[in-house]
Amino acid sequence: MVQNNQQAGSVIANIDHIKQANSATIYKVIEKYAPISRVKIAKVSKLAPASVTKITRQLLESGIISETARQASTGGRCAISLAPNSASIYVLAVKIGQKLLSLSRYNLAGEQLSNKQVNIQGEDGEQLIELLISEIDHYINNELHNADKISAISITLSGLINPKQGRVVYTPHYSFKDYPLVEVIEQRFNLPTFIGNHTRSLALAEHYFGATKNCADSILVTIHHGVGSGIIIQGKALLGQNFNIGEIGHIQANPAGKQCHCGNFGCLETEVSDRVILEKVESAIRQGCFTQLEPQDISIDSIYQAAAANDPLCQKIIEDAAVYLGKTVAILINLLNPQKIIIAGKITQAENSLFSTINQCITHQALPDFQKELKIEAAQLNPNSTVAAFALIKQALYEGDLLQKIKI
Ligand SMILES: [Zn+2]
Fold it and tell me: 261 CA distance to ligand 1 centroid (A)?
């Protein structure tokens, strides 16, 4: 009996999963081909007309799509076309950074309609959540017109995030552990909420709206105070059971290197992060190396700009760092055979020194067949923006999760 119940339960779960997948397929077809009739949706999606009728009725009831002008169709009858209500459905995308909390309102068409930034000053985990809730509350109640209702919230932050359970398992800058962030926000605002690791979500954003739009398989490498990556395989973010794939900053790049905060020696981020590049330039100047930079002007931006303007010291230090990055990128290519690798971060301002060195490493260290179609270039989106959080909403739409929950 217990076994029968289990079987019945798994059949129901499977039916729900199929329904969700079919809804997502139909939504994607409508978004891509709008305005489109139900007959054409059935043809493109290869789903039965009865399923298309049922699912489009549900999508119409939820308000996520609407009927548009009737179009004449063959046979003398009029077909009603359907289109997404993307421009008039609003979501709130939030980025929790180390020092800044950013909140932006987007419509589902991907337009950022407003943006607000709030300083985070040494808050611990509990204070951060209070700040987050009060800012979302303020945004919803004071900065929106009544008609501009928010339909979903998404949040990205650094660290180990479990998007399935909606929990922040660990985040480097704040003292909370295994925190049920989605449950807390959903209870407070009664809106579907999604969370994700910022870098992995940024890779998804580049895939939906940026440099890897037309690639099924791509890797985003981010370089800032640390080094991370987000991997997209067959159009989906690769997260795994433990949600933590892509920590390339801790691959040993230089066995003779400095000790990393993880305990290992010579991790990639001890050779390539912005902080390390800044330290190397400052130390070289102290040792008497020549640079066009004035001592009072030294910053990470001025170093990358000086390298772009052919300053020999800045170029040399970036090229040395890029050798370690190139070595790691070549490993990633051999492991995952991507179509494109994109680099995000201020370091891309020094593109000549950076990309020529990485390309040399790839030529020598990656499998020749894997290099044929491979492209490596700078990311297109601002790595610090809330677009990564918005990508989580788009993912939830494309995978059906949000279609089940959205309130318009
Ligand atoms: Zn490390």
Answer: 6
Q: Is the pLDDT of residue 146 over 80?
A: no
Average pLDDT over every residue of 123-150:
84
pLDDT (average), residues 144-151:
74
Each residue of 321-374: pLDDT tens digit?
Answer: 999 999 999 999 999 999 999 999 999 999 999 999 999 999 999 999 999 999
Q: How far is the CA of 406 from the centre of ligand 1 (A)?
A: 40
Ligand 1 center from residue 256 Cα (angstroms) = 13
> CB–CB of 25/31 below 8 Å?
no
Q: Report how far residue 318's alpha carbon sits from residue 312's, in angstroms, rounded to the nearest whole number.
A: 10
Bridge-based pairing of strands 227-233 and 236-237 is antiparallel
The Cβ-side half-sphere exposure at 114, using a 13 Å CA radius, reads 12
- Give the residue from 338, 345, 380, 347 showing the smallest Cα distance to 228: 345
DSSP state letters, 169-185 = EE-TTSS-EEE-HHHHH
Parallel, antiparallel, or unpaired for β 150-157 and 193-197?
A: parallel
> From the CA of 201, how far away is ligand 1's center (Å)?
22
99: which 2 tokens?
């020092």
Would you state the pLDDT for residue 20? Answer: 86
Is pLDDT of 1 > 80? Answer: no
Q: What number is the average pLDDT over the span 107-130?
A: 90
Calculate how far, in angstroms, residue 125's C-alpha sits from the geometric centre of ligand 1: 24
Give yes or no for residue 160 having a pLDDT over 60.
yes
Residues with CB under 5 A from ligand 1 (ion): 250, 260, 262, 264, 267
Q: How far apart are CA 90 and CA 206, in angstroms?
A: 21
**Gap from CA of 266 to ligand 1 centroid (Å):** 7
Taken in order of first residue, the domains within the chain and their CATH numbers are 2-84 (1.10.10.10), 89-203+386-405 (3.30.420.40), 214-378 (3.30.420.40)
Tell me how far the alpha carbon of residue 17 lies from the centroid of ligand 1, in angstroms: 39
pLDDT confidence of residue 298: 93
